[in-house]
Amino acid sequence: MFRIGLLIAFVASISGSYSHYVFNNLIYNDTTYPEWQYIRRPWNYDTYFPLFDLNSTQMRCFTASNYPRASILPVEAGDTVGFNVGGRIIHQGPLLFYMAQAGLGTTAATTVGSGQSWFKIWETQPEVVDNELAWPLYNLMVHAKPLLTRAKHLRLDASEVFVQIPPCLPSGDYLLRVEHIALHIAFDYGQAEFFGSCAQLRVSGSGSQVPSPKVAFPGAYKSTDPGILLDIHDDYPSDYEYIVPGPAVWTC
Ligand SMILES: *[C@@H]1O[C@H](CO)[C@@H](O)[C@H](O)[C@H]1NC(C)=O
Ligand SMILES: *[C@@H]1O[C@H](CO)[C@@H](O)[C@H](O)[C@H]1NC(C)=O
Ligand SMILES: [Cu+2]
């Protein structure tokens, strides 16, 4: 009885909102702004529940249709912008950042991010730890053995994540999309978990390079992508090259 009680408590804690995460505060110039001031409130802001449907238009900014209007933060190309993480990034998987310029006649507050408009500006690579894939950013390991041997992936860390706005980015209004893909049960088809949100930025600067390649959400990912359908707990050689989902990173 005691063991069963423990197991249920543990499973409840990994499936509840307590253990998941959202990106809720923008951080800029050492200031952490209020929740959803410059970030579009995502559909799971109160549940922290993961999105599984990579075919959904929610893959753009993770919003529900009724999110409150957010403001636009002025930044300079080359500046570093961060997101505070509500909860903690506890699952293993890549952290990615994308941007999309606001469509013609729209602003960062009104653009929907449709079409081939998204380019990737950052992605994290795993390392092989104990023959499994592990993302070093989240590096305080919680060992839950022997209750769930597969729970080795549970790690606590990463309460803030940061990215540099490319210095050569042309000025204009942009969405900055942060995404974390949790892969701890991705060996089951369709079980990769997607978390993310979009900040609304007005970028100034004198950059003139054209970002590429650009992809659409949904469309950028497939359920069978080698970086989405895989067992990260498999037996990997130390030189294993993980293929990060989505396009190549655009660099200046
Ligand atoms: C951020 O810091 C820079 C440099 O100190 C300053 O020029 C800019 O006005 C600040 N912007 C905001 C929104 O705080
Ligand atoms: C996404 O759509 C494709 C094509 O219809 C389908 O094969 C796949 O199972 C879908 N993925 C999910 C997670 O629903
Ligand atoms: Cu999860």
Commentary on this structure:
With 252 residues, this protein is mainly beta. Helices cover 6% and strands 27% of the residues. The chain is built from one helix and eleven strands, in the order H-E-E-E-E-E-E-E-E-E-E-E. The protein has one helix at 2-15, and strands at residues 21-28, 31-32, 73-76, 80-87, 95-101, 118-123, 127-129, 132-134, 160-164, 172-182, 193-204. The radius of gyration is 18 Å and the shape is globular. The relative contact order is 0.22. Residues 53-55, 190, 223 line the site of one 2-acetamido-2-deoxy-beta-D-glucopyranose (NAG).
Helix content: under 10%
The main β sheet shows up as: 5 strands, mixed
Distance between the termini: 59 Å
Spans of at least 5 consecutive residues whose pLDDT stays below 50 are 1-18, 138-157
Q: Structural class, please? A: mainly beta
Bound molecules: 2-acetamido-2-deoxy-beta-D-glucopyranose, copper (II) ion
- Backbone CA Rg: 18 Å
Kindly report the spatial arrangement of strands forming the biggest sheet. 3-11-10-5-6
Let me know the number of strands.
11
Mean pLDDT: 86
Shape: globular
**How many alpha or pi helices?**
1
Binned strand content: 25-35%
SSE series: HEEEEEEEEEEE
